[in-house]
Amino acid sequence: MIKISELPTSAERTSMVLQRVYEHRGNIQSFKYDDGKCLFTLQNCSEKEIVQNEACSVSFDFLGQLTLGYRVCDPFPADGIYYPGAGDFIELLNKKFASCGVFATQKKLAFGSVSSSTFVPEYRLGLVMEIYLYCCNSFFWHEDCLNINCTGDGCYIDAVFSHGVKAGHSLCSSILSYSVLFKNEEAPVKIKKYYPPNSTVASIGKADKKRFKLFNIFGLSLLLFTLFASCASLSFPGLEAPCLVHGTVGAGGASGDGSDTGGPSAYGTPDSPVIQVEVTNTSQKTISAVTVCFNVYDSAGNPDTEDGTEYVFTKDCLLEAGQSCVLEFKIKSPAEETAGQYVLDFVYLSQVIFSDGVIWHDCYGVYAQQERF
Known about the structure:
The chain has helices at 10-20, 47-51, 172-177, 206-231; strands spanning 28-34, 37-42, 55-62, 65-73, 89-96, 103-110, 124-134, 143-151, 154-161, 166-167, 180-183, 243-250, 268-269, 272-281, 287-298, 311-319, 324-330, 342-354, 359-361, 369-370. The protein has 373 residues and is mainly β. Strands 1, 2, 4, 5, 7, 8, 9 and 10 form an 8-stranded antiparallel β-sheet that branches. Strands 12, 13, 14, 17 and 20 form a 5-stranded mixed β-sheet that branches. The chain has a 4-stranded antiparallel β-sheet with strand order 16-15-18-19.
């Protein structure tokens, strides 16, 4: 059972879902952040290939529902503003998975000739992927939507949430890390098992095949029973996180109530905020070291790091059962124009090393126990 006193913030919710997804980098050639949008160029889906009716296929691993389709977009609208999501949406695939799990979907997207009196001749075809993420347990939320609009120049990524909050630059690198686009002939295929006529399996008679099948079923049942019996006494990481984490951030000089910084204490210098993370050992064993991960944003919601990645620190911290310690991390912020106003977001322990040599892993903070401010 995930223990958390309050629902996560919008940024936490987004980070947790993106980090639960399997990582694929695919054929992404380059990416940049421009005019409030994430733009990345694909090696196999250039403007020339799209116009010449070349087909591309898309594969995503995630939880929830996938909608694939495309729009015909006007690159030269009357108001002078190009809207990547303009035009009628033509749905190619709509698939929803009610149960939680990881799955992959491949769909060949063929871009043919499109003509419309409302569009100029130099039209562009836009591939739109709408990903809806549904809750899997009480830890997650109801629904979020990621829109990826691909044109001949690349793919523009937006994240629009059901509660009306738009995500921007901080999500660019994360979303790109979990997407893969490739040509249809490069898509993975299922391999069918084939036995040569003279093989051992092919030479077994009907009676022998029946006995062979029963033996396999009995052996599999015995193996499963042994595994379940041996796992009954184990403690799964997802059911028992060993620590409770509480983080604060300070920047701007003297100590204060932290009302502008998101935490109860504030100190440090404007260009070097000090991060405090209190770790409480809720397990029954002694902890010798922990790896702390967190994100820092300015007052406008922009990430503190240039590439939007999180901070990761490993520190020795000898904690008996029930004890707490406060770890301090000093970071240097490149955002001098917004120095002194920082928000600490999504603090978790990715690794806990116990004194007996056992190591507990939670790479993406899925099982983190966090105390809200």
